[in-house]
């Protein structure tokens, strides 16, 4: 049993449980399962769910007695800046998919983690379709590095000491089908680089190139490329990325890097970025 926490913290734990893939796949979660995931007393969870239901933050299926995220959650989510950015990015993501024949993604940095806010899936995608909402350790990804490269060395250093060892948010164990493609099992335990000095060198290389590459770090055999998105204030707000089987590109990473860089520059122009190009 967990130690005492505030009511708001308990509410958020329940909402996070209901946002898991397991809840979506199974049409919701019952009180017992939510209590198991959150390690809370069933009676406590039942009371939390009643309160959240009254606020339309969760819905209860009268037939299965399972709970799922409510309509108000979706309404609130669609009013966030990330949702607006994802909507604007869709045409550029479709263009990138047409060029690479692989899925394209829009990602934002949140502390030490990377959040995928929009995915356009290619017709013959090698990867699974469920990337939207995926949260992973940022420093080990091409997108995370592309965004971080927009910071000064001092800011990157501060990020390193605070977030370099952040792991993805914990995911409860469930009996879901395995992904069609393997995720690197060592990914959660990797640091972005051996040390800060090495990481700063990596940041400068990304600034010089205008894009970042991750060679099989997230998925074996997949070369990920990402480039930063700038808004009208010239601030980096996101990154566009795609992943291509290494057998297609070999060691010629520049070809895929140039494609994502071009897509990112076009989207930055769409957002009114006054300065286009690497930091």
The CATH C-level class name of the largest domain: Alpha Beta
Helix content: 40-55%
CA-to-CA gap between the ends? 48 Å
Strand adjacency order, main sheet = 5-4-3-8-7-6
- Biggest pleated sheet: 6 strands, antiparallel
Examine the coordinates and then state which fold CATH places here, giving the name of the CATH topology of the largest domain: Beta-Lactamase
Order of helices and strands: HHHHEEHHEEEHHHEEEHH
Which residues sit in consecutive blocks of at least 5 with pLDDT less than 50?
1-5, 169-189
Which outline best applies? elongated
Would you identify the CATH architecture of the largest domain? 2-Layer Sandwich
Number of domains: 2
CATH homologous superfamily of the largest domain - what is it?
Answer: GAF domain
| Multimerization state | single chain
The overall strand count is 8
Mean pLDDT: 80
Based on CA atoms alone, the radius of gyration comes out at: 20 Å
Derived from helix and strand composition plus strand pairing, the structural class reads alpha+beta
């Amino acid at each position: 049993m967990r130690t005492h926490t505030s009511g708001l913290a308990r509410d958020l734990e329940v909402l996070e449980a209901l946002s898991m893939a397991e809840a979506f796949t199974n049409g919701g979660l019952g009180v017992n399962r939510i209590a198991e995931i959150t390690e809370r007393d069933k009676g406590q969870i039942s009371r939390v769910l009643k309160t959240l239901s009254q606020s339309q933050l969760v819905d209860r299926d009268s037939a299965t007695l399972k709970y799922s995220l409510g309509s108000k959650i979706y309404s609130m989510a669609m009013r966030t800046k990330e949702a607006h950015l994802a909507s604007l990015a869709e045409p550029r993501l479709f263009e990138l998919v047409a060029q690479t024949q692989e899925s394209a993604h829009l990602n934002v940095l949140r502390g030490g983690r990377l959040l995928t806010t929009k995915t356009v899936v290619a017709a013959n995608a090698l990867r699974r379709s469920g990337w939207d909402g995926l949260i992973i350790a940022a420093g080990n990804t091409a997108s995370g590095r592309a965004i971080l490269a927009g910071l000064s060395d001092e800011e990157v250093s501060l990020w390193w000491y605070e977030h370099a060892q952040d792991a993805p948010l914990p995911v409860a164990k469930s009996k879901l089908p395995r992904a069609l493609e393997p995720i690197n099992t060592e990914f959660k335990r990797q640091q972005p680089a051996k040390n800060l000095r090495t990481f700063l060198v990596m940041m400068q290389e990304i600034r010089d190139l205008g894009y970042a590459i991750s060679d099989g770090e997230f998925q074996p055999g997949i070369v990920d490329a990402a480039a930063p998105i700038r808004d009208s204030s010239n601030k980096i707000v996101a990154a566009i990325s795609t992943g291509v089987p290494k057998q297609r590109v070999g060691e010629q990473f520049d070809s895929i890097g140039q494609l994502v860089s071009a897509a990112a520059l076009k989207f930055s122009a769409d957002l009114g970025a006054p300065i286009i190009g690497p930091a």
